[in-house]
Amino acid sequence: MKIQTVGVVGAGVMGVGIAQNLAQTGHQVILIDVSEEILEKANQEIKNNIRFQGFFNKKEKPENPDVVLNRIQFSTNYKLLDGVEFVIENVTEKWSIKKEVYPQLEAICPESVVFAANTSAIPITRIASVTKRASKVLGMHFMNPVPLKPTVEMIRGYHTSEETIETAKNLLSQMGKEGIVVNDSPGFVSNRVLMLTINEAIFLLHDQVASAEEVDRIFKTCFGHKMGPLETADLIGLDTILFSIEVLYESFNDSKYRPCPLLKRMVDAGLYGRKSGKGFYAYS
């Protein structure tokens, strides 16, 4: 059965991509964030993204951006989520912030609604513990840019039911995506490997072994990667990278996850990558 209405909490890079993808596949979306300014920026980003898709995809004529945006309701009011069938949460990768979202969702959403956490490192079982519906909580780790990525890493928490997994797979199928289910562990599969790779690449810069361009060129030309690890870091956001690697460091108490001092310094300086205009590379 088709899921008609989806709540998306958090209108950052990932929330924008998920809302856009859902709207472009015919879903009604309620996009929630804390300020009108953030939501207005999200509205403009979605409009621009759809236009850019039209430039790059000449074979298919994209829908008019206004038609897509009409399927998205932008709001700061959580109470609007009382009629959704599924929620995807995308707030900042800080447990102190994330854990405050779920009691609000719990109080508003019907008991049947699945809560999907789009997190790159925080354990799903921990997230489920602050709800009264642990069997209906799972992880859905989308990749950026969301509309262009065909696969989502799905994470089964300790209590996640098979019915919840199937409901989430159904939604992903409606979005034109496939889900790969893995078990709960900090960082799951993708970020347990990727964050170490990016952090080590940053150490190479810190230790003056190679430049950012040289590091990325080796990965692209020697291994066939479409992007190098530092280009990938700029795309994800260096603040998100730091949050994720700190969660891994805290969770495993293993020194191999120690964040590179250069990464910390760049985040302190506001050099987040593409979203701030400068990271390891400059963006106009």
Automatic annotation (TrEMBL):
Signal peptide: none
Important for catalytic activity (site feature) positions: H141
GO molecular function term, any single one: oxidoreductase activity, acting on the CH-OH group of donors, NAD or NADP as acceptor
Keywords for the protein's UniProt record, in alphabetical order: NAD, Oxidoreductase
Location of the 3-hydroxyacyl-CoA dehydrogenase NAD binding domain: 5-184
Transmembrane segments: none
InterPro entries: 3-OHacyl-CoA_DH, 3-OHacyl-CoA_DH_NAD-bd, 3HC_DH_C, 6-PGluconate_DH-like_C_sf, 6PGD_dom2, NAD(P)-bd_dom_sf
Protein known as: 3-hydroxyacyl-CoA dehydrogenase
Source organism of this protein record: Halomicronema hongdechloris C2206
Higher taxonomy: Bacteria, Bacillati, Cyanobacteriota, Cyanophyceae, Nodosilineales
